[in-house]
Amino acid sequence: MEFNKFRIRSYEGQYDRAQVEDLERRCEVGPSESVFLFTDTMGDPICRIRNSPMYMMLVAELENELVGVIQGSIKLVTVHGHPPKDLAKVGYVLGLRVSPHHRRKAIGSSLVRRLEEWFSSKDVDYAYMATEKDNQASVSLFMDKFGYTKFRTPAILVNPVNHHCFQISANIEIARLKVDQAEYLYRRFMGSTEFFPNDIGNILRNKLSLGTWVAYFKGDIGWGILGQMDKSLIVGQCSVYGTVERYSS
């Protein structure tokens, strides 16, 4: 079968914003027909990558219509045994979308290939992406065609915060940490975790980060002395990335 030729180019916000947002709305994802997620970028399609040290967004264009999009960012992360100092440069593949009416035309694979070429030009050690384990088309594209291997299988849980009806126990205190305290805590307890971001301090200091909180039992002041904290402490961090994950059920 012969397809019309498409071209891949860099995202241009002034001209592409509306079409990219429309494409996002037409490419909702979810585990079933009754539950789906889509990203409302609220007028800033590159909000997910804008605060990374290096980033790129590409679009696929066919007869003046945007039919595909992909985003990528690059940062240093922890990778045990990788010189120097167990740090590696990793490229993150994000937001691969292809218009439902233009799939199976090699648009997705062409976008991935072009993004990986950019990664290579920046001396990236590993490429990394996340997809639903049941998204067979995506799994096949990355694992079968591009040779990616499974690294982790995380779970994303969704619940509207205004539906919470439980009360916090009277024995629990919640306090907000200073940025330096939060950075120390993350580096101490998570710094040796594979793919831990080396720029965690910049992430916490970013204006879109709302803060980091700890929950502890009343009367237990050990959490305030960072050197005495232990892993029984419950920690939560909240950020706003200019995206809204909506769901319907």
From TrEMBL:
Organism listed in the record: Vigna angularis var. angularis
N-acetyltransferase domain sequence ranges = 6-162
As one GO molecular function, the record gives: acyltransferase activity, transferring groups other than amino-acyl groups
Recorded hits in Pfam families, A to Z, give: Acetyltransf_1
Which Gene3D superfamilies does this one have? 3.40.630.30
Name assigned to this protein? N-acetyltransferase domain-containing protein
InterPro entries in alphabetical order:
Acyl_CoA_acyltransferase (IPR016181), GNAT_dom (IPR000182), Plant_NAT (IPR052810)
Q: Which residues form a coiled coil?
A: none
The UniProt entry, under CDD domains, shows: NAT_SF (cd04301)
